[in-house]
Amino acid sequence: MKFEEQESIEDSTNEVILEPEVVETGESEETKPMLDYNNIKSSQDIEVPPLLIDQVIGHEESIETIKKAAKQRRNVLLIGDPGVGKSMLAKGMAQILPHETLQDILVYPNIEDNNHPLVRSVPAGEGKKIVRATKGSAKGHEERKTIITMFAIGGILVIGFMYGRLLESIIAAALILLISIQIKPKSNNMSPKLLVNNEESRFAPFMDATGAHAGALLGDVRHDPYQSGGLGTPAHERVEAGMIHKANKGVLYIDEIGTMSMKTQQELLSAMQEKQYAITGQSENSSGAMVRSQAVPCDFVLVASGNLQVLEGMHIAMRSRIRGYGYEVFMKDYMDDTTENREKLVQFVAQEVKNDGRIPHFAPDALDEIIMEAKRRSGKQDALTLRLRDLGGLVRSAGDVAIEKGAEIVTAEHVVEAKRFARTLEQQIADRSIMQRKDYSMVSAEGGRIGLVNGLAVIGDRSGIVSPIAAEAAPTQSKSGGQIIATGKLGEIAQESVQNVSALIKKYTNKDISNYDIHVQFIQTYDGVEGDSASVSIATAVISAIEEIPIDQTVALTGSLNVRGDVMPIGGATAKIEAAAEAGMKKVLIPKSNLKDVMIEKKYEDMIEIIPTETLSDVLENILISGSSKDKLIEKMKNIGSKVAEKVPQTSINNPTTN
Question: Which part of the chain is the Lon proteolytic domain (predicted)?
Answer without folding.
Answer: 447-626
